Amino acid sequence: MDWLTTVDHKKIAILYLLGGGLFFGIGGIEALLIRLQLIKPMNDMLDAQTFNELITMHGTTMIFLGVMPIVFALMNALIPLQIGARDVAFPFLNALGFWTFLFGGILLNLSWVMGGAPDAGWTAYTPLSSSMYSETHGVDFYTVGLQIAGLGTLIGGLNFLATIITMRAPGMSFMRMPMFTWTSFVTSAMILFAFPAITVGLVLLTFDRILGANFFDVAGGGNPVLWQHIFWIFGHPEVYILILPAFGVISEVIPTFSRKRLFGYSSMVFATILIAFLGFMVWAHHMFTTGLGPVANALFSISTMLIAVPTGIKIFNWLFTMWGGQVSFTTPNLFAVGFIPTFTMGGVTGVMLASAPADFQFHDTYFVVAHFHYVIVGGMVFGLFAGLHYWWPKMFGRMLSEPLGKWTFWTFAIGFHMTFFVQHFLGLIGMQRRIVTYLPNQGFDTMNLISTVGAFLMGVGVIIFLVNIIRTSMKPIGVANDPWGDGRTLEWTIPSPPPEYNFKQIPLVRGIDAYWKEKMAGNTEMAPSEPVGPIHMPSPTILPFIMSLGIFIAGLGLMFSGEEFSNSFMSLIFNNWIVCGLGLLITFGCMLLRSLYDDHGWHIEPEELEEEGV
Q1: What pLDDT is recorded for position 608?
Q2: 570 is in which domain, residue-wise?
Q3: Helices 9-37/445-473 angle, 10° precision
Q4: For residues 515 and 490, is the Cβ–Cβ distance under 8 A?
Q5: Domain of 123: which CATH number?
Q6: Mean pLDDT of 391-401
Q7: Which GO molecular function, any one, fits this protein according to its record (predicted)?
Q8: How does DSSP classify residue 111?
Q9: Which of 84, 400, 423, 532 has its CA 20 to 30 A from that of 454?
């Protein structure tokens, strides 16, 4: 009950980690099944329909339900600690954001057991995703599930924006914030602008499929290219929504293990903002072959290449941070250092794809698959592994095993390059994406075999990481405030794991890398900005869970509203919108209850703090 009702950002971070880990595992199994099907020519392990469902669900699960919540787990765990706050701005909304994400993800994955998963590719291009070509409820699960999960992400983004703007400790100006907080701030702003676009697109597609509208139906005066514009106006910023927090992680890990300040802090901040700004201006580079014409193609080609400039600034700044530093290759730093060349390769192939004439050749081949996996896995997942190993002792009070961590790195990194490096060449010699099998003796056989072996090696790396977590969780809690010894930011000034109120006294920040500055001045802890006093805490509540459950029920009711059931009772409750109405009633009832009942929270008194011996 404690976990169902919690509004503590640190517990919600753990819930996001568990939820994201679950979906990451599901997405990984789907990927392994895809690779097994392609291990040899003319393989008949999977039929074409199942294969289409797997590639759709793998992409959708990994991007929306796998890495995104793990990013949110780190943001939840760390942003309040890094800015010297006791909680996020809206604890209730924080819980609501998690539960709507979880129920949206569960709804999407229920499609496997309720009549077929979505099969139109993770981008759900119309008319493939229209009811004419996708006759099962698969794409309905996609549209409704992602709307619910996306609502959770949007709520989370708003919450982090409000937290960072209003709750920074005294002295913590914007240009003194840690880079992870900065990238999270910019990411949250991007979520605010990007997610409404995909929400609109999903609503329109839902109307087309369930209510018989014709936004994307040519015969009814609609336009299928409109879906591509709406999807990619969200979809390209989404890539940066995923990668910017990883940039933030790398910008925290490398200075710590180089024992140096981050090189070019202000240029890193401005590069982050510039990436976000340009990220909204490049969406049509996914559509070079759509027929937009040479002017549009040229403009989007140039704007895409421009993004390489701020990204290059970041890469050189990380290299210059390590230059001349006392670099120690701990597990977090191995992932951080491994991230740099891997992500750079993804960036270089991105510039190749940005050239419209070249893109005509690369488009819909395995070259594109290799490119975005180098960006998302080689960038995003390497960054997440670095962050999880780095902040694990802070979140859980236990150090992950270094030998097992290094095994995780080497198996995952070698497996990753085996899987995706050869796919560049597969694409260049003509292997298309999304094909269920291929003829022998075209030059595809050996490289596909290598790719599949590499994928299983990555799987081994993830299993070693899970073994590391299980072994570590059996140890007693007992690491120091600053277990790495070279922590630079505020989260390393408080106990591991942090108490529920985070800071007994809000610290006074006197410069960038606030804790390191105090260490250099000979102090062992931060100067407080306030006397010890009562600490206000928010009350736990079950309402976010029930509200999200209501939305889930309403979503199911909407999807099956036009279904022809053999059971008359099912027909009665679904066809007459009773299930949908009931779900909305639950959600709006909870909103009303939340509005009318004034919850003042509770206080931890100074005497209780003294009794705890802190």
Answers
A1: 82
A2: 542-598
A3: 150
A4: yes
A5: 1.20.210.10
A6: 95
A7: heme binding
A8: T
A9: 400
